[in-house]
Amino acid sequence: MYAAPPEGLPTKARAWLTREGIQLYAHQAEAMERLMSRQDVVVATGPSSGKTLAMALPIVAALAEDPTATALLLYPMKALAQDQLGKWTELARALGVEGRVDVYDGDTPSHRRPRLRAEGQILLTNPYALHQYLEWHHRWAPFFGGVRYVVVDEGHWYRGVFGSGVALLMRRLGRVLARYGADPTYAVASATTGDPSLLGERLLGRPVAVVDRDGSPQGARTWWAWDPDLDPERSLFPQAVDLCRFLIHQGSQTLAFLPSRRMAEALAQAVKERLLAERATSDSGSGSAVASYRAGYRPEERRELERGLREGTLRLVAATCALELGVDVGGLDAVVLVGYPGSVASVRQQAGRAGRSGRDALVVYLPQENPLDRYFLRRPGELAAGKVEIPVLNPRHKELAVRHLLCAAAEFPLRRDELPLLGAEEGDATSLEKAGLLATTPNGWSYAGRVRPAEAVSLNALTARQVPILVEGEVLETWDEHRARREAFPGAVFLHQGEAFRVCSLDLETGIAVAEPSTDGLTTKALTLEEARIQGPPSGPTSDLGLGTVSIRETIPAYKVLDRGRVVDVRPLDLPPVEFTSEGVWLTWGRDSQTSRSGSQHGALPLATPSPGGLHGAEHALVALVPLIALCEPGDVGGASSVHHPDTGLPTVLVYDAFPGGIGIAPLLHARVRDWVGRTADLLASCPCQEGCPRCVLSPRCGSGNQPMDKGAAWTLLRAWIAAHDG
Asked: Which of 175, 248, 582, 631 lies in disulfide reach of 391, CB 3.0 to 4.6 Å?
């Protein structure tokens, strides 16, 4: 669906559209009109729908008319900023903004930085870099004073701890810009999300207009759910190889998404070998028909692969999610999803790489062995047209707010009326003052600590203490202490950009972990024991649902070593427990009230005393399906169950945010509890196993070895709870 350019679009921009032969889609024209009328906007349309042009054209046109105006563009990763630089530079050159567009981040040579700050008109950066630069805002005075637009690209990536930290960073940015007299308009580009308005408001801290009616042409997509169990003699991987080979023989240009770098490269190599054996194609360097694509390739390598996809010389590319973000690869015939990528939003992004410009396309989904993957095998319609998750972020998280309060005070003195902006209260500032970290001045609280807070405060962590992961003396990643205890224990294997590393040592006193590359193909799973106590409002005898504060004590007595998913060893661990306070949602079963209500009103079987195995199975299944409701990782939540919980006095299943202070997952589960519990019960009903399996109730993270476990009782409990809750 096309639309005419907005009336207020400058003449140069209109002429450029005519010269390039570009017709605007309806959503592009709407977004442009809103931006030109100074409305903050979230553009949440499908992949390859022209979101960049919808934002860039009115912004560059406005800057061309006012050489003193500037624009700040934020991308979640350095590589993406580099990818997008060419598009902004080309458009800027066409409209007369020449030589004033560049990337400014940690890789920018120091000798170029002063000129970019003084003369740059459009600068691309990332949140990590901006977090460091804000304290030196006086150096940015020429640029910050002219900021007319702020663009936040890939908005759906800002979720969880990272999203919460970036939301507070955006509030600090607004405060700095206001100091220099700037009052910018904000534009957020996002993939389809469950609530783009909520995402925009939480991320920016201000109301936003939403543009989400995609007007770009889309061909018909055929969705095909592939059941690996129909060929029980062969595992998923060789079946995926055969499928990709078949698509190539059918003449379909195909993009396969895989969960790791190693799998992507292995698939590409296996398909190449099969094709060579059949003499159907040849491996002749850059012109070969099959390749892999992942993070870590040099920019020129990525550009070559993208060109091969656009021009059709590449017939199959096996990729990680690196190709999900903002890379223009043209219209493809087929997309193969090997494993559920973690969210329906990501599925839509990946599937949207095929069928552009009105072409028909095929999307094939191959599930792995876990509850989420198997849930969608039986319900592929939800992947194609079902609800999209709501990104979870909590800019009012107390620990994060206090740390960003210190950052703001280091930027310039913080007034009392600015505390709510950062989710803080006067008592927080007073406590920091008593601790010697803030000092009262005539202009407000000023930072008084010895260490730059921007250096100490991580956008990715909820705890102040950070643990660097060292590989050959270099920092590979930095994790907060809670995550390090769970995932960087000695012997643990973790992935970094799809590459496997094994932890050699973890010293909690010095806060340093040392790791090395791992090439043996083994993986690890921590066995976690959880004790959860409810501190918030307790459930009464007639209540079946609660939401409140919980205290968590986690211990990891051992971990499993797995070879291709098969347990080959269980090794003990001696680590101190992790203790923290968080948010939780709990379900209870009041035996008397629920038996009568479910039996008389809904025709369900009377519910006997819930068994430990039934509650345990319900807990595992509920935890596994949390990502259906909230856009988060499976490890972002934990669970506990008890036949007689000491804080409710009832059979109870509790699910909590696995972060100190909570990150907003539990409240969202509470708000959508009927959908969550109902879909979990449906998963148990549809799984063909009898006793329970890794596809429904068995969890590799379970510290008690999945004992006791009763899948049938778990389903009965969930159905009875739904009946009672509906009643």
From this structure: 631
What pLDDT does residue 402 have? 93
pTM score of the predicted model: 0.84
Question: CATH number of the domain at 221-391, please?
Answer: 3.40.50.300
For every residue of 470-520, DSSP letters joined together read EETTEEEEEEEHHHHHHH-STT-EEEETTEEEEEEEEETTTTEEEEEE--S
Amino acid at 58: P
Do 333 and 354 contact (CB within 8 A), yes or no? yes
- Helix ranges (H only) for 312-364 are 344-351
Q: List the domain boundaries for the chain.
A: 2-211, 221-391, 398-456, 466-520, 526-726
Give the pLDDT of residue 606. 45
Cα–Cα dist 186/587, whole Å: 40
Q: How far apart are CA 371 and CA 374, in angstroms?
A: 5
3-state secondary structure of 69: coil
Alpha-carbon gap, residue 102 to 93, rounded angstroms: 12
Distance (Å) of CA 134 to CA 169, 171, 173, 402, 432: 9, 11, 7, 17, 21
Place of tokens 């709407």: 30
Between 196-204 and 160-179, two packed helices, what is the crossing angle to 10 degrees?
50
**CATH top class, domain 398-456:** mainly alpha
- Residue ranges, the chain, pLDDT below 70: 279-288, 294-299, 322-331, 356-358, 463-464, 497-498, 537-543, 565, 591-608, 727
Q: Judge if 2-211 and 221-391 fold alike in CATH terms.
A: yes
Residue 596 has a pLDDT of: 34
- CA 335/CA 352 separation, integer angstroms: 8
Instruction: Choose which CATH entry (1.10.357.10, 3.40.1190.20, 3.40.50.300, 3.65.10.10) describes domain 2-211.
Output: 3.40.50.300
What is the β-pairing status of strands 474-480 and 209-211?
unpaired
Can you say whether the dihedral through the CA atoms of 480, 483, 484, 488 is positive or negative? negative
